[in-house]
Amino acid sequence: MEQIIHFVRQYWKIFVPVLIALLAIVLLKGCTKKDDVVVDTKEEVQEVVQGDYLPYDAPANASPLTGESCANYDKRAFGVMFSGSTDARQVYHNLDKADFVLEMPHRPMHGEPRILAVYQCDTPDKVGPMRSGRVDHISVAQSVGAIYAPWGKSSIAGALLSRESVEHIEVGDGIRANDGSRVGFIDRSIRMTSANPAFADVSGLISAAADRGYNTSSQTESFAHQGEPALEDRPSYQKINVKFEGDSRVQYFYDKETNSYLRTYGDDPHVDFVSKQQYAPKNIITIITKKEAWWVDNDFAQRGLDNPWEGVPTDYQNRDNGQYPNMQLGDPWFDTKFEDEARFFFNGREIDGTWRRADAPNAPFEFFDENGAPIRFAPGQIWLHVLGHKQRVSHTSEEEYLEEQAKAEREAASGGAL
Questions:
Q1: Contact present, 348 and 312 (Cβ < 8 Å)
Q2: How far apart are CA 235 and CA 263, in angstroms?
Q3: pLDDT, tens digit, for every residue of 290-336?
Q4: 199: which strand partners?
Q5: Residue 86 belongs to what H/E stretch?
Q6: Radius of gyration of the chain (CA)
Q7: What is the largest CA-CA distance in the chain?
C-alpha cells in the first residue's frame, strides 16, 4: 500500500493531464453522437410533420386568413350572420369579399344552412341579408378572432352572449355608432318574403366596436399557406357535392385556369348580387359531426357541461325546447368532442385529414392531413362547411370523371347493351 501511495505521489503530474485528455475525448465523442441523433430526429420529424407542399412567399401584409396582401391585415375581423333562405341567397351582397365563410345548419329538424361571413381585408358598406345566429356560429367567430355580429339571436345564443365574455355587436335597423356611422339598416328595395332585407355596414361595425372599447387589433391566428401549382400540373376536372338535409345542395366545380372552385346552389351558379360574379373560393373544408338539439330535460351538468338554458326565461324554454341545434365543434361550453375527421379541397387536390381545437375559450381550429402534417391552404378565400351526421359529402376526381365518360361512350356505341 505504501508503495502504491509513493508511486502515485511520484507520477501524479504525468497521470492527471492524461486522464483529463481522455475525459475530454470521451465528452467530445458523446456530444458529437448526441448532435447526430438530434439532427437525425429533427429531419425525421420534419418529414412527417411538414408534409408535401409548394413553397410560398407570403407578402409582408398578408392576411392571417387568406395569406394574400391585405390592407387591414393587423385589424380586427368581424363575423357577420347571413340568412340561409333561398330568396336571401339570390341577393347576397358582397359575400365574395369575405376572407372566411362558414356554412352550417341552423335548425335540428332540417338542414337549411346559414352563413357566417368573416371580413377583415375588405370593409363593404353593405353585407347581408342578415339573420340571427346560433351558439356554434359564435364559437367559430371566436375561433378566428372575429367580433360576432348577428341580426337578432336565439334564446340560448342570447343567454350565452349575456353571461359570457363574448365580444359582439347586435345589429338592428337604424343603429348608428357614436360618430354617426351606419351600423345596421333595412333596404326595402330588396324584395324578400322570408324576412326583412336587413344589412350591416362593416365600416359602421368598426366604429361600433371602438365605442364598446373592444380591441381593434387583429386577434386572428394565421392559417398556414402554400403556393399554387403550375397550370399544366392542375387537373382538368374535380367536383365536390355538399348535401345538406332537405333541398339544400351545394356543388363546386374546379376551374383549372383560376385554381378555384365555382359554386352552385341547387342547379344554378351562385352569383353575388353586387359583383355579378360566381362565388369561387380557393379552399373548401367539409366537416361532418354530431348534430344534437337543445332539450330542457337533458342533464348537462351531469356531463360536466354548462347549462345552455341558464338565463333563458321559462316561457322561452318551453317555446324553444328542441328547436335549436348544437353541433359538436369543440366549443368550450357545451361540447364533448374537440377533434374529428375533415376533408380538404384546394389546388385541385382532395386531402383526408382531421380538425382539432383546444378545450378553451377562443380556441382556434387546427387542421391536419392524414399523416398529422398541418394543412397549408392555397392563398385565397376559405369556405368551411359543417354538416350533421346524417348529411354527406361526395367527391368526383378527374380520373373518376374520365372513367364515367369512357363508360358512357362505350354504352352509346353499343346501343346501351353494356
A1: no
A2: 17
A3: 999 999 999 999 989 999 999 999 999 999 999 999 999 999 999 99
A4: 185
A5: helix 86-89
A6: 28
A7: 113
